[in-house]
Amino acid sequence: MKFLILALAVAVVSAQVHHHDIAQMVDQAFLRLDVNPKDGLLEFEELNHVFTLRDTDKDGKLSYAEFSAHAVDNAMRHELFNHFDTDKDGFLQKAEMVDNNFNAMDQNGDNEVSRHDFDHYYTNIIQHLLHNHNGR
């Protein structure tokens, strides 16, 4: 019985740390994207600008190397890249990275993404990827 209680306590602590890690990763991602103005809202042009900056060879798409150079979580960068690469061509097109994500986050169509909407969207993606990665 003591072992079961200890195992449950460890599982609860692990889940809390895990949730904290996800929240930290999402927070860092938002701060990197909310660039001008830094107002707690993401606008389409901000995401477009960040995409253009990360496209270092200026070919209109992000290679895995370009994406990885700016990935918030190195442990999940491969899974995130594959998730966003919807046409599975090995590159992230602007439509995949900017248009699709912004439209998915901008639920009310006001051309702004609140911090809450961003957190909800990316937390769901990360949890989904972790669930699939861990084989659950």
From TrEMBL:
Question: Which N-terminal stretch is annotated as signal sequence?
Answer: 1-15
Keyword Transmembrane helix listed: no
Which residue ranges does UniProt annotate as crossing the membrane? none
Q: Which domain of life is it from?
A: Eukaryota
Query: Residues in domain EF-hand?
Result: 42-77, 93-128
A molecular-function term among this protein's GO annotations: calcium ion binding
**Annotated InterPro entries:** EF-hand-dom_pair, EF_Hand_1_Ca_BS, EF_hand_dom
Keywords (alphabetical) are: Calcium, Signal
Q: What is this protein called?
A: Uncharacterized protein LOC111113285
Instruction: State the organism of origin.
Output: Crassostrea virginica (Eastern oyster)
